[in-house]
Specification:
Keywords: Electron transport, Ion transport, Membrane, Oxidoreductase, Transmembrane, Transmembrane helix, Transport. Its main location: membrane. This protein is an alpha/beta fold. It has 3 domains: 189 residues; 96 residues, Beta Barrel (Elongation Factor Tu (Ef-tu), domain 3), CATH 2.40.30.10; 183 residues, Nucleotide-binding domain of ferredoxin-NADP reductase (FNR) module (Rossmann fold), CATH 3.40.50. It is built from 16 helices and 12 strands. Helix 2 packs parallel to helix 10. It starts with 6 loop residues before the first helix and ends with a strand. The protein binds flavin-adenine dinucleotide. The site of flavin-adenine dinucleotide has 21 residues, from helix 7, strand 4, strand 5 and helix 11.
């Protein structure tokens, strides 16, 4: 601000320096805020060595941090500008209202403030949980926000005192616009990709309001543990809902398990015939549009020696695909990975949920090639009714199979104590009982993958951290719906 060509602005006071500095910070935020939501680019970047340095799976967290930073600098920028406008009037340079409402910078600035109020309030967790659509549609105002941001400096707001005068702003739009261009192409790619032919091949109604949709889309490529976005134009052309892929890449179809919890999923159930009296699948199935697949931490399971997979309720879906993939790998021995042991925990509130993947778990248990490679730990957390307890006792006569799941592994009642489970696992590894043949001085990586409510994720993070030692490294990865 010691530029003699801008001396007429400097004389307004320190507020000019503050508004310009905050404006530059906002330009940086504006340039990067869209990058973490470029899911296609992130999908590829997380496969590179960069993933060891940049936590790409925390992309939405980073997007939020950019937004918080933007809010902070907006408050500073606006406050400083309001002081500037008062000073401009005091110095007799221009009436304040004219800078506010006649200059393009003032008009676009106020427009952006209005959009920010709408976007920030509707992005609050409580709104997202209660009415995701309100958040989703309001968030698309970002398009107009970005247009205003790129054009905020038109009209030569910062001009020199020379004759003729020259614009001497930061010209930040020249680089902030690239974030928008990249994001725009992401959305175009989504549109093109989602229009490729998709054919529903099978619909299975499971208990506890879960539907399994199997479909074919020849152009669709994915890895176990990834998720896709589903759109059903008959319900809404604009709503895209994420669902984890439950089939394995070697399957001849792609499948998702959808739990009916709200407007979209219930309407989908209706279109797929869930509420038909005879339970028959309708002849005219709705058109599906699929976008993806996108990466999640779960796709890295095969990079560990030991994987602890923990799914709560429908949070089991990422692991269904992984378990199937493990099975295919075992059949096809050419595809060996680092993975030597898998501990699979499934925590369910009600017994109906077990049926979603019962046949998959049963066939995995029966067809295990390597003894002890895959262990199931099923937990039922709801209180049982007396009639259910009686049924369990009656059906448990043979004792070889669990009466609830029909698996050899027994169902546990209540919540698992992960702190104890991890300490026991660590002890078993240390004493060489768990991975026989493994050299003791080599480091063992235990990947803990969790999909379920955020409250348990917090405890698991603490438990895994506590279990770390020099030779045994527990890595915690979470996902929640
Ligand atoms: C990565 C990921 C994978 C998922 N995988 C599965 C799965 O395999 N099976 C399954 O049943 N569910 C899954 N979900 C949850 C599923 O997306 C929501 O249940 C579904 O979108 C609910 O829509 P609705 O209109 O029926 O319900 P609503 O009543 O509108 O919403 C119910 C809950 O879902 C959230 N939600 C709604 N729409 C979206 C959206 N477009 N994007 C993100 N969250 C949304 C809301 O915040 C709310 O908490 C997954 C979510 C994520 C983020």
């Amino acid at each position: 601000m010691d530029d003699p060509e801008l001396a007429h602005l400097t004389k307004i006071g320190l507020s000019v320096t503050v508004s310009r500095g905050a404006g530059l910070c906002l330009a940086y935020d504006g340039a990067i805020i869209l990058l973490p939501v470029c899911r296609n680019i992130i999908k590829y970047l997380r496969l590179t060595f960069l993933n060891n340095v940049i936590p790409f799976d925390e992309n939405l967290w980073f997007h939020r941090q950019c937004a918080y930073s933007m809010l902070f600098w907006t408050l500073v920028h606006t406050f400083a500008h309001y002081i500037n406008f008062i000073r401009v009037e005091e110095l007799g340079l221009s009436p304040a209202w004219a800078v506010h409402y006649k200059h393009p910078a003032g008009v676009t600035g106020h427009f952006m403030l209005l959009i920010m109020v709408l976007m920030y309030t509707s992005a609050h967790r409580s709104v997202r949980q209660q009415s995701f659509e309100t958040f989703w549609y309001t968030h698309h105002l970002a398009f107009f926000f970005m247009l205003a941001l790129y054009t905020h400096a038109t009209g030569c707001f910062v001009a020199t005192n020379t004759v003729p005068k020259r614009c001497k702003g930061y010209f930040s739009w020249e680089w902030t616009i690239w974030g928008g261009i990249i994001y725009f192409f992401e959305r175009v790619l989504r549109e093109i990709r989602s229009r490729q032919t998709t054919q529903i091949t099978k619909v299975i109604y499971h208990p506890s309001k879960a539907i399994e949709i199997q479909f074919q889309k020849p152009s669709f490529k994915y890895k176990a543990g990834q998720y896709l976005f589903l759109n059903v134009p008959e319900i809404s052309s604009f709503q895209w809902h994420p669902f984890t892929i439950t089939s394995a890449p070697d399957d001849s179809f792609v499948s998702v398990h959808v739990r009916q919890v709200g407007d979209f999923t219930n309407k989908l159930g209706e279109l797929l015939g869930c509420y038909n009296e005879k339970g028959a699948i309708p002849k005219d199935l709705p058109l599906l549009r699929i976008d993806g697949a996108f990466g999640t931490p779960a796709e890295d399971v095969f990079k560990n020696e030991i994987a602890v997979l923990i799914g709560c309720g429908i949070g089991v879906t990422p692991f269904a695909s992984i378990l199937k993939n493990i099975w295919y790998q075992q059949q096809n021995k050419g595809h060996q990975s680092k993975l030597r042991r898998v501990e699979f925990f499934w925590i369910c509130r009600d017994t109906g949920s077990f049926e979603w993947f019962q046949s998959l778990l049963k066939s995995l248990e029966d067809k295990q090639i390597e003894e002890g490679f895959l262990k199931f730990h099923i937990y039922l957390t709801s209180k049982l009714r007396e009639s259910t307890i009686q049924n369990i006792i009656i059906n448990d006569v043979s004792g070889s199979y669990d009466p609830l799941t029909d698996l050899e592994s027994r169902t546990h009642y209540g919540r698992p104590n992960f702190s104890y489970i991890f300490s026991q696992l660590k002890k078993a590894i240390e004493t060489g009982r768990y991975l026989p043949g493994k050299e003791r001085d080599l480091e063992t990586n235990v990947g803990v993958y969790y999909c379920g409510p955020a409250a348990l994720a917090k405890n698991l993070k603490v438990d895994t951290k506590k279990s770390n030692s020099n030779g045994i490294k527990f890595h915690f990865h979470k996902e929640h719906f």
